[in-house]
Amino acid sequence: MIDLYSAATPNGHKISIALEELALPYTLHTLELSKNEQKNASFLAINPNGRIPAIVDRDPEDFAVFESGAILLYLAEKTGRLMPQEAKARSRVVQWLMFQMGGIGPMMGQANVFYRYFPEKIQPAIDRYQGESKRLFRVLDGQLKDHEYLAGDYSIADIANWAWVRTHKWSGVDIDDLPNLRRWVDAIRARPAVQKGLLMPASVRDISDDPVAAEKFAAHARTMLETGQSRNEPSKGQP
């Protein structure tokens, strides 16, 4: 049994989706980021960085893993699934996983901050991070032109990137001109395990096109950002 400590953010959903795809039994513990629960001593004993997600694998003895990319690697290696064993094939998966960890996530996170959360609209910053997010989307689109998935078969690399790319509207970045990426987003969204993973825990409905609801959510996140309650965790998420 695995204990999953998470919240409804892209990084959190990476892990719940992977657990559902792998059919591993787990118990979800949802942390209230607005209440600073990720800074409680009990959680810091699991993840000293005080961020979600984190897991504790209870089989055969308690073993904690934090950082979403590290958790995905651990689960894939534990089960022998969602990542090839052959060295070069495995490297391809890890390369695209790192692409998300070092590029897609940070750039979209900053786009969220400047486009959605900062009360002052600093247009050069918005342009910078939306532009870099779109550039990275084009890289994905190019890779997916001749590949069904990013690194051969469906893998943790697809899960990691998809959990972020699916929130592109919240970052203010369109993908309608990227047909290969659009196809991939829709295909992965249709997977039953992905749909179930997105409910663990569930996001509110997509409010990107609802100005009133979007501003209400952004105002709440802005308060958290300004008070430092979650060390910018809301900047990484979307409703």
TrEMBL record:
<dbReference type="InterPro" id="IPR036249">
    <property type="entry name" value="Thioredoxin-like_sf"/>
</dbReference>
<dbReference type="InterPro" id="IPR004045">
    <property type="entry name" value="Glutathione_S-Trfase_N"/>
</dbReference>
<dbReference type="InterPro" id="IPR010987">
    <property type="entry name" value="Glutathione-S-Trfase_C-like"/>
</dbReference>
<feature type="domain" description="GST C-terminal">
    <location>
        <begin position="86"/>
        <end position="207"/>
    </location>
</feature>
<dbReference type="InterPro" id="IPR036282">
    <property type="entry name" value="Glutathione-S-Trfase_C_sf"/>
</dbReference>
<dbReference type="Pfam" id="PF00043">
    <property type="entry name" value="GST_C"/>
</dbReference>
<dbReference type="GO" id="GO:0016740">
    <property type="term" value="F:transferase activity"/>
</dbReference>
<dbReference type="Pfam" id="PF02798">
    <property type="entry name" value="GST_N"/>
</dbReference>
<dbReference type="InterPro" id="IPR004046">
    <property type="entry name" value="GST_C"/>
</dbReference>
<keyword id="KW-0808">Transferase</keyword>
<dbReference type="InterPro" id="IPR040079">
    <property type="entry name" value="Glutathione_S-Trfase"/>
</dbReference>
<comment type="similarity">
    <text>Belongs to the GST superfamily.</text>
</comment>
<protein>
    <submittedName>
        <fullName>Glutathione S-transferase</fullName>
    </submittedName>
</protein>
<feature type="domain" description="GST N-terminal">
    <location>
        <begin position="1"/>
        <end position="83"/>
    </location>
</feature>
